[in-house]
Amino acid sequence: MDAAKSVTANFTLQLVLTVAVSGTGTGVVLSVPAGISCGADCSEPYNSNVVVSLTASPSQGSVFDGWSGACAGQSNPCAVTMNSANAVGATFSLAAGSGGSGGGGGGGGCTIGTDGRSDPSLPALFILATIVLWRRRRT
């Protein structure tokens, strides 16, 4: 130091946005500006008055049911203005017809694969097994 110096410190207020994922289904919530990728990272500090856009993306076999908290009543994506700490909930449920097997009339139903589509080989296997058993009974 060879003379008197002055120093100025500037601080920016950052507010935390927290996202919680719930429901019987699965999915992720991503933010713009980046920072939240919930499943893994569900909380992020943002500068005051920044508008954060949240997009809910359901996993295959799930659907997005809606927002709660600071995004309640909004469509997807939703917008949160960071004028205070905020919490948002995203609810996912299982899509209709995913998982398990369905019953039906006289035919029995159809097994759904993990990708949400029916397995086309199952009816053929059922028919083949029926023919083999029928032939064995006749001989």
Describe the structure.
13% of the residues lie in helices and 37% in strands. It has 1 helix and 8 strands; from the N terminus they run E-E-E-E-E-E-E-E-H. The chain has one helix at residues 121-138; strands at residues 14-22, 27-32, 37-38, 43-47, 51-58, 62-69, 78-81, 86-94. The longest helix has 18 residues, at 121-138. It starts with 13 loop residues before the first strand and ends with a helix. The model is unreliable at 100-138 (pLDDT under 50).
Poorly predicted residue ranges:
100-138
Helix content: 10-25%
The CATH class name of the largest domain reads Mainly Beta
Count of separate DSSP helical elements: 1
Number of strand elements:
8
Going by CATH, the architecture of the largest domain would be: Sandwich
Shape: elongated
Succession of helices and strands: EEEEEEEEH
Distance between the termini: 108 Å
Task: Estimate the mean pLDDT confidence.
Answer: 79
Strand content: 35-45%
**Main sheet characteristics:** 4 strands, mixed
Structural class designation: mainly beta
Radius of gyration based on Cα positions = 27 Å
CATH third-level topology of the largest domain: Immunoglobulin-like
Number of self-contained structural domains: 2
| Strand numbers in spatial order across the main sheet | 4-1-8-6
